[in-house]
Automatic annotation (TrEMBL):
Keywords: NADP, Oxidoreductase. Belongs to the aldo/keto reductase family. PANTHER family: 2,5-DIKETO-D-GLUCONIC ACID REDUCTASE, NADP-DEPENDENT OXIDOREDUCTASE DOMAIN-CONTAINING PROTEIN. It comes from the Archaea. Residues 25-269 form the NADP-dependent oxidoreductase domain. This is 2,5-diketo-D-gluconate reductase B. It holds the Pfam family Aldo_ket_red. Its EC number is 1.1.1.346.
Length: 283
């Protein structure tokens, strides 16, 4: 008889592994802007056990995410809350102002993690990290993060920030595994965080992932999320409603075997889903 939990057993909040204080499975909120759906989805996620919520100034939904947290019976201090400063606002003064606006919009005293959303436009390692360091000292954020950085930009960030860079958020899933970026991130002791961990829906129907999912009678979403977790990468899938939130949360109970993990390692297609012209890899 198998001792492995079945895919239908949903892990409790305490079972979610943590990367240095950050729960390794979170909820993404990009494009969740509906006034009713968004607070409800956040409240549902927290009720289910999620304790990590990812938003950004650029998503225009911080007030709705904040409403969801307030509506939930989960205490604010038990939620790991991350937001990001948009690329046009990364000059010293704008970054300070935007971070204050972010906590106001979220209705919280501070965030747990504040990311540089993209190293583009107004980003300048000296001025941007001068502001971010000051925001840590002021208590507006507990930690500094970076997002969409290439390996050489990670080096520059580490050199310029006085406080440790805690996390690096970049696109990562079985179809875009980002070996070089993961390596550079981990080399500096920075926690890797995968955005678009379901390849924005493209993990569904992929032959190898579907076969593995079929063998466990689970969805490809769970397989992708379990692979990321086993490879030491935090994931923040976006889901709008209870069924998807539940399915993704249940990935915590899915144990892939070494053969399955290795087979997924072989799937890298360098298939990027988020590819704006200002992405540093396009410069
Ligand atoms: N730092 C950055 O530059 C950056 C860029 C992109 C994303 N992000 C962050 O990463 C988060 C996740 O990335 P993403 O939103 O691009 O894509 P994703 O999480 O890979 O995919 C989201 C899509 O998958 C669907 N979905 C979720 N769970 C599912 C399930 N179990 N079964 C079937 N479909 C499912 C969602 O549908 P429903 O909405 O209908 O549930 C949505 O259409 C974002 O929300 C954001 O917080 C950051």
């Amino acid at each position: 008889m198998s001792e492995k939990p079945t895919g239908d057993e949903v892990a409790t909040a305490n079972d979610c592994p943590r990367a240095s204080g950050m729960p390794m499975l979170g909820m993404g909120t990009w494009q969740l802007t509906d006034e009713e759906v968004t607070p409800e989805a956040v409240e549902t996620a927290l009720g289910m056990g999620y304790r990590h919520i990812d938003t950004a100034r650029g998503y225009g939904n911080e007030h709705l995410v904040g409403d969801g947290i307030k509506r939930s019976s989960v205490d604010r201090e038990d939620v790991f809350l991350a937001t990001k400063i948009w690329k046009s606002d990364l000059g010293y003064e704008d970054a300070i102002e935007q971070a204050h606006d972010a906590v106001d919009d979220l209705g919280v005293e501070k965030v747990d993690l504040l990311y540089v959303h993209w190293p583009a436009e107004a980003y300048d390692p000296v001025e941007t990290f001068r502001a971010f360091d000051e925001l840590v000292e002021e208590g507006v954020t507990d930690r500094i993060g970076i997002s969409n950085f290439e390996p050489e930009q990670i080096e520059a960030a580490v050199d310029h920030a006085d406080h440790d860079i805690f996390a690096h958020q970049f696109e990562c899933h079985p179809l875009l595994q980002q070996d070089a970026v993961r390596e550079a991130t981990e080399e500096h002791g920075i926690e890797p965080v995968a955005y678009s961990p379901l390849a924005r829906g493209d993990v569904f129907g992929h032959e190898v992932l579907s076969d593995i999912a079929g063998d466990h009678t689970v969805s490809e979403a769970r397989v992708s999320l379990a692979w990321l977790r086993e490879r030491g990468v935090t994931a923040i899938p976006k889901a709008s409603g209870e069924a998807h939130l539940h399915d993704n949360w249940a990935s915590l109970s899915l144990q892939l075997n070494d053969g399955e993990l290795d087979a997924i390692d072989e799937l890298d297609e360098h298939d990027r889903k988020v590819d704006p012209e200002f992405g540093p890899w396009n410069q």
